[in-house]
Amino acid sequence: MKILLVEDDLALSDVVSFTLRRAGFEVIPAYDGAAAMAAWETTQPTLVVLDLNLPKQDGFTVCRAIRSQSQTPIIILSVRSGDDAVVQALELGADDYIVKPFSPAQLVARVRAVLRRAGTGVAAGQLTHNGWTLDPLRHEVRWREGAWLHLTPLEAKLLEALMLNAGHVLTADALIQAVWGVEGASRAMLKQLVYRLRAKLEALGGGDVIETAPGVGYAFRA
Question: pTM score, two decimals?
């Protein structure tokens, strides 16, 4: 699921992006109000996390514009803690309001709660990225809203490691450690596991999303 994160503090944006990606969400960053509206129109995110103090267009203006066109869930993330700001944001259609500073766990929990209320929630423990959803506990994966496909425990561990690090190459040794642990395995065994997982994912219709970095390892396409 895609989350549009609108935050002009670059350091905080990086922290929040990392937190949400670790929770399995795809993050689209924007750093001012005008960029936020452009990104919302082109990407159609599942949820918006929105600061109020923004350049070009403030968060109230962005919230009003989005709500006039869509019911996309909006969570305000702001240093403003006064009743006036909170009431105004909620009256404009925001679904939740989080005051800075906040804990990463609180943010993820509030995002999941808003998505559940909107009927688009991700079950606890599930990972999502670019249309893919993995349930590591049930060893199941699906593409978009298609049927769930059962994976072996090793295939599920491999896919979990790749999705948690989407867009980044993981070395063969790192993947062996993540999948087999202290028992270890050979690179040939990893290669065969990647081959089987890749074939299963391609059969679901999402294409080849596992990239091979020759001589290094593998990555899940960002």
Answer: 0.57
